[in-house]
Amino acid sequence: MFYCIAILMGYLLGCSNMALYLAKARGVDLRAGGSGNLGASNAAILLGWRAAVLVAVHDVGKAVLAVILARMLFPETEFIGVVAGVAAVLGHMFPVFMKFRGGKGFASFIGMMFALNWVAALAILGAAILLTVITDYLVLGTTLTVIAFPAWEALTAHSWIPSLVMLAVSAVILFKHRKNYVRIWNRTEIGLRSTIRGEHKVK
């Protein structure tokens, strides 16, 4: 029963989407341009970096909140934070209020990661940022992060169950980024530096 409550709570928190709210306020359709997703990376491309920062903070924060609330409400329940965090990530990617068409889940994954193990999160995110800067592709940093954190937890925790649950959502995140990988192969992916300079921002 506690797990069901944590899943529902996490999922509903994940369904909140700042990118959609900002896009509607600006009269921009995020699904019609860029990557076509309702997340921070596409907000950066179509709305600018200020909007992207706000979206990212919101998307990270809702997963952090899901983990913290679950642990506060059910402190004796094993893996409850992981369950709530994964549910928040899935809620972001597949929000029921938007016909299950949300973002790609990376920012919320980061929030879950920090709420579960901030030391590991800092180390992994640092490596991911370095990889992103070197390659100019955000998706490569994303890939490293969603694979490395479950692996880290598997090697350091007393149980493999949380890692397997996180790996499942990591697989979904990687699948949602499949078009980015194709664009990198075709050399048509929008780079980090181009995004920061606002070369693809909607006027």
Largest sheet: none
Strand-residue proportion: under 5%
Q: How many helical elements? A: 11
Q: Count the strands?
A: 0
Structural class: mainly alpha
Terminal-residue CA separation: 49 Å
User: What's the overall geometry?
Assistant: globular
List the domain count as a whole number: 1
The low-confidence runs, each spanning 5 or more residues with pLDDT under 50, are none
Helices and strands, in order, run as: HHHHHHHHHHH
Mean pLDDT: 87
Helix content: over 70%
Rg over alpha carbons: 16 Å
Describe this structure in words.
This protein is mainly α and 203 residues long. Helix content is 73%, strand content 0%. The longest helix is centred in the first third of the chain and has 25 residues, at 49-73. The model has no long low-confidence stretch (mean pLDDT 87).
Task: Provide a concise account of the structure shown.
The chain has 203 residues and is mainly alpha-helical. It is 73% helix and 0% strand. The protein has one domain (2-196).
SSE layout and pairing:
Elements: H1 2-15, H2 18-26, H3 40-47, H4 49-73, H5 80-93, H6 106-116, H7 118-135, H8 138-156, H9 161-176, H10 178-186, H11 192-196
